[in-house]
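Entry 12.
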Amino acid sequence: MSGPALKHVDSHAAIHEAALHEAAELTGILDHLIRDEQFDKALEVALVTLEHWETRTLRHADSEEEGLYKELVETTPSLKESIIGLTRDHDLLRLLVKEIKVMLDEGIINDTIVQRFQALILVDQLHNQAEEKILPNH
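Predicted 3D structure (tokens):
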């Protein structure tokens, strides 16, 4: 069973907006540090940013998949294809996070890391827009 915040479009959108805002701020800081060649600090910020995606966005995605999405498909079977697409978005986020983790474990700290974090932001923005179109109807 999903919590009440996930079922109400305004509170759900606020969760998305807050997490994305934080991710964008962290990614901006990371970008500046890399451009300024402050690689030690950049690595610290990249690790914090990675943790943010894991604990905020991916944990939220897990919660949606375990509760909200199942409930939506049960109550409105016509949403099945949309839910499959939203779950695929989550899988793309997980894949990008995994790639970033591998790169950081290998000591890679460069613009490629920033691009991966920017890709996470873009995929999540598009995902949230699609998801929020479904929620007002339920």
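Annotation: The two ends are 15 Å apart (CA to CA). The chain has one domain: 4-137.
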